[in-house]
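Standup notes
- HV: blocked on the assembly model, inputs below
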Amino acid sequence: MVAEDHIQELRPLCSDLKTTSEAGIDYVLLPGLKMPDGCSPAVVDCLLCLGPRDGYPNRLYFAQIVNSRGARNWNGQNIRIAERNWFAYSWRVPEGLRPIEALIAHLQALR
Amino acid sequence: MENRFSRQSFLGPEASSIFSECTIGIVGLGGGGSHIAQQLAYLGIGRFLLYDSDKAEATNMNRLIGASFEDARQGTRKVEIAARSISAVNPGARVHCYPCVWQEAAKTIREADVIVSCVDSYAARQDLEVTARRFLIPLVDIGMDVFLVDNNAHIAGQAILSVPNGPCMRCLGFLNDENLRREAEEYGAAGGRPQVVWSNGVLASIAVGIVASLLTGWNGPLSNGEYLHFDGNTNKVWRSPRLNFAPERCSHFPEDFVGEPAFG
Amino acid sequence: MNVRLRITRQMVERTLDDLQRPHDFAYERVGFIFCKQSEIPSGVLLLPYRYQALRDEQYIADETVGARFDSSSIREAMQIALTDGSSALHVHLHDHKGIPGFSGTDRREMQSLMPCFVNMRPDRVHGALVLSLDSAAGLVWSTGRADSERMRITVIGPTMKFFG
C-alpha cells in the first residue's frame, strides 16, 4: 500500500491519479501525465511501479512509446499490467526514493 | 468418423464432449506450442485461440511441428501453420488465429477454459499468469533451455500447472526477482535460444497430459498445482520438491483478485 | 446473452459448508455470492470474490418454504452489490447428488427478487445459483429482459467441472 502522504506529493503533477495493486506490487496510475518539453505526444497515461519488477527496482510505464530528445531503448513493449498494455524504456532509478522523486528521475531520461 | 476417440474411452464417458466443448488458448506457437496444438487436436479439443506474432523461418525448421520447407521460405505465420495442423486432424474444430502478441488481443484470451503458455521469457510468463489468475483460468506452462557447463550441453525443461487459488509460479519459486533481473540484464543478447524437437515434444506431451487430467479427472484429482522438471540428458522427469513447500493457497493472488483491476 | 460463471472449488466448498449447517427452524440456508463482471467477446464472465452467509436471525419462520429471509438480508446484499459494483447471485442447496433444478417456488421467488438487483445496478447481470452436492445450475437476469437465462458454470480446481 502506498503511503497517503507520498500519494499527495504526486497530485500536483497529476490530480486524477489512482492507485492499484497487482501480484503484491503497488502501482500509481497517472492519467494524462505531461511529458517533458520536446516529447511527442505531450501528454500520456503513465503507470508508476513502486516495487521491483522485470529486473528494475522501480519503473515508469507509458501507454505508448514517446518520442523524445534523448533517444531511449524501449525494451519493454506490450507489458500487461492492470489490464492495459504498457511500454517502458531501459532506465535504472535507485530504490528507496519517494514516489515523486522516482517519477521525476524517470522522466529525466526523456529530456 | 464414429470411432475416432474409442481408444481414449478410458478418459471417461464425458471426456469427448468435454473436449469438444472446451476452449484452449495457446500462447506461443513455436517449438512447444506447435506440438501442443497438434496433440490437442488429436485429443478432440473443439476450440482453439492461437497467439503468436512470428512467422516461420529457416531456423525454426528443426522443430516447428506442421511447418513445411515452403512455409519457412514464404514466412507463413506460425498461427496459420498451427491452425492448418489442427484442421487437418479435426476439421470441425473452431480455430481463432491472433497473429500478434496475446496482449494485443487480451480480451479474447478470457474465453479460454485453459491457457497453455509456450512463451520464451520469465517476464512474459509473469504477465500471462496474472491475467490467468484475474479471470480464473488454469495455466499450463512449459519451457526448455540448453546450458553449457564445462563445454557440455545440458538440456533442462519444466512443465508447471498454475491453478487459481493454488500455488502460483512465484509460490513455486520458478518466477522470482533474480530470474527476472538477470533476464532484463541479458535483454538483447545476440543469438536465438537453443531448441530441439525431442525435448519440446516431451514437454508438450506432458502439458497435454496435464490438460487432459485437468479437464476429465481421469487420473484422480491432480494436486493443487504441478511442477515437473525434465532432464534432457538423462531423459528423466520428476516432480519438483518445491511442491512440498508451496503454500496450499497462493499468497500473491488473493481470492478477491479477480476481474478488472480496482483503482483507489 | 452468453453468461459464464467461473467459480473456484474452494468457494464452492465454503458455500456448501455454510449451506449445510443446520438452522433452528429454517429447512435450508441461503446466501449470496458476489461476482466481478467482465466482458468477453461472446458475452459476460462472472468471477466470484465473496460469499456472504445470512445470519441466523435473518431467517423468518415459514413452514411453507425451505427458507424465508428478512428484508435486512436483501438490503445488505444490494448494498454490497451497489458499493462493490458487482453482480449478486442468490445461492441455495438441493441436498442430493446430480444436476439440480430450480423448483417452481425457486423461480417465483427469484423472478420477484432479482429484478430489484437489476434495477439497482442495470449494468450488471444478477441471478440465482442452485448447488447440489456435486453439481450446479444457474439463472441470470439482466436489464431489458423479462425472463431469466441459463448460465454456463465452470468449477475451477485440480479437476475442472462444467455445468450448463
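- HV (later): unblocked. The CA atoms of residues 25 and 124 of chain C lie 34 Å apart. Chain C has three helices and eleven strands.
- Next: hand off to the docking folks.
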